[in-house]
What does this fold into?
Amino acid sequence: MNLDHLVYATPDLAGTVADLRERGIDVVPGGPHPGRGTRNHLTGLGDGAYLEVIGPDPEQEAPDGPRWFGIDDLTGPRLAAWAIRVPDLAAALERTRAAGYPFGDARPMSRRRPDGVLLSWSLAFPADDGEVVPFLIDWQDSPHPGESLPAGASLVSLTGVHPDPGLVAGPLAAVDAALTVVTGPAPRLEAVLATPGGEVVLR
It folds into this structure.
């Protein structure tokens, strides 16, 4: 499994960033997502993975549709998704469809880092159980964000919760995602991070 990043979505980006910093997680500005109405802050988690904190961008107009990860309906931050890095998104999508677990179409994305470097990538979301089944991301020729991030925390564990773990076993296997999934009332994720001040749980 090539974990790319965790997505911590919030309706109040500034407030959530301040809270994480108080809890010992050093997050730094990432940049806006033009046309999506969002921007992010990031921190490294070790082994090339990172944590993305994403929320509404007050400097952008409201997007035509809802913001991704259910941000418009949130009342507080939540660990909304996770991503697997793939070297060839088109080939990965072909494999998952052949296995009977389709993902949506590839979507091009971009943002400009604070230092002016333009990052471009493509991603695709699973058709079902998107909170437990990861989405796929291909960074193409862009530098990976994890290469320039502070080591704000380290990932101790990532666990999925689902009413019927057997339903997500096939899709997880199709993308080589070795995620432990336990039984619970509703699909969700839980991550345990190690920081200099102790462990922090995000869910």
Summary: The mean pLDDT is 95.
